[in-house]
Amino acid sequence: MSDDDETFEAGGYTLHRRREFVWELPKQGDMRVPARVLASRDLLEAISDDRTIEQLRNTTHLPGVTDYAICMPDGHQGYGFPVGGVAAIDAESGCISPGAVGYDVNCGVRMLTTNLTYDDIEGREEELTNALFDAVPTGLGGGGVINGSRESIDAALEYGVEWALEEGWAVESDLTHCEDGGRRLDADPSAVSKRAKDRAMNQMGSLGSGNHFLEVQRVTDIFDADTAAAYGLSEEQVVVLIHCGSRGLGHQTCNDYLRRIEEEHDDLLAQLPDRELAAAPAGSDLAAEYYGAMCACINFAWVNRQLIMHRTREVFADVFDRSWREMEMELLYDVAHNIAKREVHETSAGETELFVHRKGATRAFPAGHPEVPAAYRDTGQPVIIPGSMGAGSYVLSGGEQSLSETFGSTAHGAGRLMSRTQAKDEFWGGDVQDDLRDQQKVYVKASSGATIAEEAPGVYKDIDEVVRISDALGIGDKVARTFPVCNIKG
User: Fold this and answer.
1) For binding Mn(2+) 2, which residues are annotated in this chain's numbering (predicted)?
2) Neighbouring C-alpha atoms within 13 Å toward the C-beta of 230
3) Confidence of residue 4 (pLDDT cuts 50, 70, 90)
4) Is residue 82 in a domain?
5) In the prediction, which pLDDT does 404 show?
6) Domain total for the chain?
7) Is 17 helix (H, G, I), strand (E, B) or coil?
């Protein structure tokens, strides 16, 4: 930390305090715009020893980047582009970057509400955990809620949750409570490779591995009673959080386009400080193809979470011996994390159409925005921010300042403090599992102890601090807090 209260030394760079919780790396050298970090000093300390600031600075070299690149309070070092990063890039004169979207396209979260209370499941946590683990495919390998065919893969890529509705895996309200109605109309299944589709065949409705999970939670705190009521949330209520993405299909698609950019647009790549920021020029055939493929992957990820939610409804029905409709198991909302979307925003150059890249960041549109579903137009878009297995998660509403501060974005989670390798050196999965059960009454089941060690609570930043910054800046307003009860992981 600098002696000067108005600056902060982080990763070899000097950040200047613009106002509370807003730190800026001024434009210098080949930077096209400044870079901003939204954080408290405690959170800045957490990123001082990794490459977060360097990676954020590198993003400012992308052609067409507008106003400033941003790192959210949960930011940490990623692949080329920092996790927690947001970059808005001119859709006509700029570029679109698979590296700034990430491999797990539309990794995201959805929350399912119920009319159950914690009293209804207390004492049955282990039974419920085992039933969910047996019913919902997890881990690196194949296996999904359904066996996909080439036809079903193509339909899911094109129609998203509309296809799931047609097939009986969804109800109408699942679409109306999902970002974009659960379908990106710009999706182009033909732009997704056969290899990517083949990888998706046996992964439709599966969590995968890493930090992906299904978690039963209870609502512990309500901060905004009116908005919580509009979202259908109340204290001690049982909710379910599902976190996963586009599985092998998204990973393969990102890899395919990174390779094609190297072959077709190496001139642009050579101008960037990090080849992992690989981008295709706006207006090029490759940019159009990648956008269509990415939107198809977005649709697939929504279907993936929808199928898991369908299976979760069935498990609850079996365990509690009543229909999921009797338990009012309704989708609150589904939000995407790793994504680049065409959006129109007010910028320093006026109203501009942009590719808004959000990598490990979530959209947070305020009340009244036309892209917020009608059910939430008066309250603002629900924003779901998961914490670790031993900490709370949060439901926010899109804040009034999000459009002017962050291109309508906020944080997506707690953010990692240590790598998976470090975590396995520091923690033992069985000990973490026992401690969570015995000390916090949190029941965890995973396909391996290593997975639990990698996701130990101590691996993550303080979710309360991350959300405090979001709320203070007015980019995401606190509505409710939840706490884990049961958690299954890959």
Assistant:
1) 243, 337
2) 20
3) low
4) yes
5) 96
6) 1
7) strand
What is the Cα–Cα distance from 117 to 484, expressed in whole angstroms? Answer: 13
Q: What is the pLDDT of residues 185-194, one digit of tens each?
A: 999 999 999 9
Name beta bridge partners: 121.
Answer: none
Question: Is residue 204 in some structural domain?
Answer: yes
Please state, as a whole number, how many other Cβ atoms lie within 10 Å of the Cβ of residue 422: 13
* Residue 150 covered by a domain: yes
Please name every residue paired with 244 in a beta bridge, in sequence order, or none if there are none: 108
Strands (E), 199-270: 213-222, 237-244
What average pLDDT does the chain have? 94
Beta strand extents in 276-391 (DSSP E only): 280-281, 330-336, 339-347, 350-359, 361-363, 382-385
Q: Does the annotation place 26 within a ligand binding site?
A: no
> What CATH number should be reported for the domain holding residue 396?
3.90.1860.10
Exactly one of 76, 251, 357, 412 is catalytic; name it.
412
Q: Tell me if 27 is assigned to a ligand binding site.
A: no
Q: Is residue 434 part of a domain?
A: no
pTM, entire model: 0.96
Quickly tell me which residue has 């940490």 as its tokens.
76
* Whole-number pLDDT of residue 2: 46
Q: What one-character DSSP code corresponds to residue 328?
A: T
* Catalytic annotation present for 412: yes
Q: Amino acid letter at 431?
A: D
152-203 per-position pLDDT tens digit: 999 999 999 999 999 999 999 999 999 999 999 999 999 999 999 999 999 9
Spatial separation of the C-alpha atoms in residues 233 and 384, rounded to whole Å: 13
Question: What is the β-pairing status of strands 476-489 and 213-222?
Answer: antiparallel
Measured CA distances, 169 to 244, 382, 481 (Å): 18, 23, 29
> Residue 131 carries which DSSP code?
H
State the residue range of the domain holding 249. 7-91+105-417+460-489
Residue 446 marked ligand-binding? no
Element (H or E) spanning 445, and its range? strand 443-446
**415 labelled binding-site residue:** yes
